[in-house]
């Protein structure tokens, strides 16, 4: 299913804020997935399966703090002038995770109450990038202390569902949820609380156009299964990527992110080609775009549909793309169509 979704990396929750570790940690006695519950090394099994059967990068989410751990509560009462929790729990766990499972992504969280010096983040990251077994491949996020949040890291996450809607100077990630209101699975969630495939792709395209990656959260059931509605969304995105991957994978932001004339059109660039990702299919036979600058050698294609489309230059700047009648069964995809513009004058 993960392969079918088109995902390039997966981030699994090794430990959330309640402190339960999904691996047999030596530093979480009797509160781990081998001691109670499934009696399995969930992190290890998933890591092995992904690394053996796919080319997907395996990442680990880890919460620095724990809501109810007495050591953390004591450190907090001392205004974080003591580091008993960090020295006895957080750092030993992180070193154990990296040395044992060798993740490609370290996704830190639960940092915002204390500064990075308390968490010993600089020392840990120095080890990660210089001496760890993943030093040549690993990527880290920015949640390593309240002074590091949205400031320092391999890429920025800033806050949950971060989607600035404009080009950013740093690499960033939109960590968001398919269920609008929860990171976990809610048995009683109405259908309206889930993003539709169309809405999910709109968020995805906007994120990529502005230079970001999107991390789509899926909350598993208590049995550890993925509910059909999540699977449907993941497979839908994968189906869309099977057609439109050239507009997404290895793309980079263009000089313009969203069109100046037609709403809900976002741009990406791959090699010397510009892609106009249109969220709403034109109601007439013309798609008018204000950002591209054409010349005589410009060609236009609808990705997944054979043949070039005809076009007319707009006065000054812009292009009118003439849409031929396309039978429903010949449409390349159901949502979000990519128009490939080659030979533009403003690439």
TrEMBL record:
<keyword id="KW-0326">Glycosidase</keyword>
<comment type="function">
    <text>Alpha-L-fucosidase is responsible for hydrolyzing the alpha-1,6-linked fucose joined to the reducing-end N-acetylglucosamine of the carbohydrate moieties of glycoproteins.</text>
</comment>
<feature type="domain" description="Glycoside hydrolase family 29 N-terminal">
    <location>
        <begin position="1"/>
        <end position="246"/>
    </location>
</feature>
<dbReference type="Pfam" id="PF01120">
    <property type="entry name" value="Alpha_L_fucos"/>
</dbReference>
<dbReference type="Pfam" id="PF16757">
    <property type="entry name" value="Fucosidase_C"/>
</dbReference>
<dbReference type="InterPro" id="IPR031919">
    <property type="entry name" value="Fucosidase_C"/>
</dbReference>
<protein>
    <recommendedName>
        <fullName>alpha-L-fucosidase</fullName>
        <ecNumber>3.2.1.51</ecNumber>
    </recommendedName>
</protein>
<dbReference type="InterPro" id="IPR000933">
    <property type="entry name" value="Glyco_hydro_29"/>
</dbReference>
<dbReference type="InterPro" id="IPR016286">
    <property type="entry name" value="FUC_metazoa-typ"/>
</dbReference>
<dbReference type="GO" id="GO:0004560">
    <property type="term" value="F:alpha-L-fucosidase activity"/>
</dbReference>
<keyword id="KW-0732">Signal</keyword>
<comment type="similarity">
    <text>Belongs to the glycosyl hydrolase 29 family.</text>
</comment>
<dbReference type="GO" id="GO:0016139">
    <property type="term" value="P:glycoside catabolic process"/>
</dbReference>
<keyword id="KW-0378">Hydrolase</keyword>
<dbReference type="GO" id="GO:0006004">
    <property type="term" value="P:fucose metabolic process"/>
</dbReference>
<dbReference type="GO" id="GO:0005764">
    <property type="term" value="C:lysosome"/>
</dbReference>
<dbReference type="InterPro" id="IPR017853">
    <property type="entry name" value="GH"/>
</dbReference>
<dbReference type="InterPro" id="IPR013780">
    <property type="entry name" value="Glyco_hydro_b"/>
</dbReference>
<feature type="domain" description="Alpha-L-fucosidase C-terminal">
    <location>
        <begin position="257"/>
        <end position="341"/>
    </location>
</feature>
<dbReference type="InterPro" id="IPR057739">
    <property type="entry name" value="Glyco_hydro_29_N"/>
</dbReference>
